[in-house]
Amino acid sequence: MNLMHMLAERAEAKGPVRAGLIGAGKFGSMFLSQVPTIPGLEVAAIADLDVERARAACREVGWDAARIEATHFTEDGLALCARDDVDVILEVTGSPAAGIAHALAAFDAGKHIVMVNVEADVLAGPALARRARRAGVVYSMAYGDQPALVAEMVDWARACGFRVAAAGKGTKYLPSFHMVTPDNVWEHYGLTPQAAQAAGMNPQMFNSFLDGTKSAIEMAAIANACGLAVPAEGLGFPPCGVDDLAHVLRPRTEGGLLEGAGMVEVVSSLERDGRPVFRDLRWGVYVVLEAPNDYAAACFAQYGLKTDASGRYAGMYKPYHLIGLELPISVLNAALRGEPTGATRAFRGDAVAVAKRDLSPGEMLDGEGGYTVWGRLMPAAASIARGALPIGLAHGIEVRQAVKAGEVVDLSDVALRDGPAVELRREAEQMTDV
């Protein structure tokens, strides 16, 4: 609340808030579409490996020629981070290695950064957040994406005095989806490859949403931002509609499915036989509250909340998220309040690589949403103790020894190359919170 008033005061006193966007794909384009209707917010520079694609994206979302002409375009994200005319950097590449490099450059330049790149945050977020604090800048989750929206709901619940039994999101899930590849992803979205291409939708990226990888990454990010626990055996994806959140997502000791209290979990919009769940939460996020006393529990019933049979657990949810259309909230919070819209605070959850098929020595891993591996959620302490390969490092690296389909890929199974991403990952591992 109050952001537009603060923005008007800032614009009058110091000029507009100026953003720099790195990555002009679908998420970035959604943000760009909103900028012309927000007085006091401008995009000073856009970095993309394909500059002409970035210009075309601006035209596609409705920018006029004058706005495009006034914007600096470059292929170099590191150079964008150093520009004097940028206040807040938005990292939207989706590449963990690129995201870490851009974050470090932003810190060096004293710039706030909104890390849309959840992949980079889960790979090394605790270390990046610590470096941001040392640099005196904001390191933030992206409002509009599920992790930041869940973090907001968790914070709201705790600030109201409720205990958080569970938090997470909905998705479309069946166990067979773990094996889907970019070749057959669109049939599960009800799209033709041609329609997806026309909408600028990357098949490998969207496959990471379907095969469970994105869910693992996002739940790890939520656990790390909110201090929530991670299921020991990974996400269960229970079928669950909004009316049943409080019944399903409570501890097993209370009759629910969770192994304990205060956990992340993703609910499926499909029953295991493929039937749609009634009043599903496929596009939304949720938090399950536990009343701290009998009086609060009575209020749940009095004000119409859907509760479990005991009346002590209640579900609150947001049915939709608007992704890049909501991203200005993060930019303005960073620039005007000096606050993140959610941020990693500990290392509790990790996303590790699991073989989609039998892998042989000499093969190359192709990362999230690809043909070789998918990402599974794992407690960070267990992941580190095992020496599991983070999904964020499973890009373009060679398999050294065979891995069976369904098995976790370990660091000892691959030829890992040193670099900034690996260095930051090792730094983050020293910050594990069990």
Brief description of this entry?
The protein has helices at 3-14, 26-34, 51-60, 65-70, 77-81, 96-108, 118-135, 146-159, 186-189, 193-198, 203-210, 213-226, 245-248, 294-302, 328-337, 380-386, 420-429; strands at residues 17-22, 41-47, 72-74, 88-91, 112-115, 139-140, 163-171, 263-268, 285-290, 313-318, 349-355, 364-366, 373-379, 395-399, 414-415. It has 434 residues and is α/β, with parallel strands linked by helices.
Structure description:
With 434 residues, this protein is an alpha/beta fold. It has 3 domains: 156 residues, Rossmann fold (3-Layer(aba) Sandwich), CATH 3.40.50; 137 residues, no CATH class; 81 residues, Antifreeze-like/N-acetylneuraminic acid synthase C-terminal domain (Type Iii Antifreeze Protein Isoform Hplc 12, Alpha-Beta Complex). Helices cover 37% and strands 18% of the residues. It contains 17 helices and 15 strands. The strands form 4 sheets. The protein has a 6-stranded parallel beta sheet, sandwiched between helices.
Main traits of this protein?
Type Iii Antifreeze Protein Isoform Hplc 12, 434 residues, 6-stranded parallel β-sheet, 37% helix, alpha/beta
Q: Span from first to last CA?
A: 35 Å
Biggest sheet character: 6 strands, parallel
Number of structural units classed as domains: 3
CATH topological fold name of the largest domain: Rossmann fold
Give the number of helices: 17
Gyration radius, rounded:
21 Å
Helix content: 25-40%
Strand content: 15-25%
